Amino acid sequence: MRYSALQVLKEGLTGNKGWRPVWREPEPKKQYDVIIVGGGGHGLATAHYLAKEHGITNVAVLEKGWIGSGNIGRNTTIIRSNYLLPGNEPFYELSMKLWEGLEQDFNYNAMVSQRGIVNLYHSDAQRDAYARRGNSMLLAGADSVLLDEQGVRKLCPFLDYDNARFPIKGGLWQPRAGTVRHDAVAWGYARGADSRGVDILQNCEVTGFTLENGRCVGVDTTRGKIGARKVAVCVAGSSSRVMAMAGMRLPIESHVLQAFVSEGLKPTLPGVITFGAGHFYISQSDKGGLVFGGDIDGYNSYAQRGNLPVVEDVCEGGMAVMPMIGRARLLRMWGGIMDMSMDGSPYIDKTSIPGLYFNGGWCYGGFKATPASGWCYAHLIATDRPHDTATAYRLDRFRSGAVLDERGAGAQPNLH
Amino acid sequence: MIIHHPLLGPRDAAEFVYLGDASLLNRPDPAAPSAAEDFYTYLHLRDNTAGEHRELWYHEQGDRSWLVLTRNTLTHEITRVELARDVAGQAS
User: Is the pLDDT of residue A128 over 70?
Assistant: First the structure.
């Protein structure tokens, strides 16, 4: 069934009896061309693009729980392409372009809302760094505008411009950035993949990899053994645990990142705002809640919940940049587990085992990358060559020295 | 989290800075023929255990000692705290 305004009207007039489940619940087949391990945003996007762009439809997506139950349902929904390094920026700009055409592409309302992002700067040095970043974005075909204080005041009159410690001097603005309804991204990709014949197998946990003559030819699961010509792992948050079953150690640590949402308020924020003197970012959901967050807790964790010192730090950042936030009541807070890589950049690569592919290490920037991650992973799986925009995301880049360190923090995952 | 410092007693984890897996104490020999590969593994690859994890914490807002904690990454429960110099002494 194709969704359209006409369909909504027709169903509305006939008691909404014609709607069908968005995806099937098939039994696992014995053998697939490609198995994707992990039914999150990236895994489902990969399945969608494998089927749609490469014509590979004999595909299964295996998910331990229900699809979209991991970080695609736990993030702060921001999309942007404001990176600096030439190994990163074209990839994220590809992602932004895919976001812009996404709803038409998979015929599902993902509420892509391009209301812009402003990264505030508070000093001369920071302005210079943002000017350079903005130029790098323009070179990759993205949009960026360097605003002075007056420019930011026009967009966001409610910020604390004359803060004694962190006066706001301006900001780097990307008007095409914004937010997306995160769950709908998982559901839309699931629908797109399923309608082209991809089997989405929920409650199907991978418990081991089947190797034959050193080649990966399938997986053991809680729903039986399933064979495949290619197995593609895409389980950010659990990457180390899953790849350990293939005997691999990864350049990844798992850390917990907390996020917060306030009670619903009338439209207040024009878009996403990030504080430049601490780590704090905020946007407003379509329901009106202020969605915000800051640093990871900073120690290895698989617990999906954090501790109070970081809550305090995030709230201090919020109060420093936007004092009116102090009047809003907090509705919910939660934590998600991040694959923190050794240089803050992700991996989309083959592994040392033929037939086994790996996608992970997204740190806390995976949501915005969802479409390009799926696009480039599908390209790698289908052609065995990396996509042009993802050639830097090698799993062995720390051995070769070709690291991709936006922050310049070195091999210290909790600093990225 | 409360860290029971072996010398100072219970301290708030916010006083500490986290470094990472305690395997970082076992620095490879830079003169070994396999040094390049050893340092790649030492610096960049991690077991990243879900469960009991041995890790280095630095008491920056305190006595500036390095500690080795044994902590469960699934529950955040700390079961053992040692001075890193004692742990390093045992290793050599």
Answer: yes
Please name each of the domains of chain B with its CATH number.
Answer: 2-25+44-87 (3.30.2270.10)
Residue B44 is nearest to which of A240, A299, A342, comparing CB atoms?
A342
**Residue A236 contacts residue A253 (beta carbons within 8 Å):** no
Residue-by-residue DSSP string for A253-299: EEEEEEEEEEEE-SS--SSEEEETTTTEEEEE-TTSEEEEEEEEEEE
Q: Which helix (H) or strand (E) holds B30?
A: none
- The pLDDT score that the predictor gives to residue B91 is 56
Given pLDDT bands bounded at 50, 70 and 90, which one contains residue B90? confident
Residue to mutate among B19, B48, B81, with most A CBs inside 10 A, is: B48
Provide the whole-model pTM: 0.96
What amino acid is encoded at B50 in this protein? A
**Hey, is the C-beta of A253 within 8 angstroms of any chain B C-beta?**
yes
Choose among B12, B18, B45: nearest Cβ to A298. B18
For chain A, the distance separating the N- and C-terminal CA atoms, rounded to the nearest angstrom, is: 44
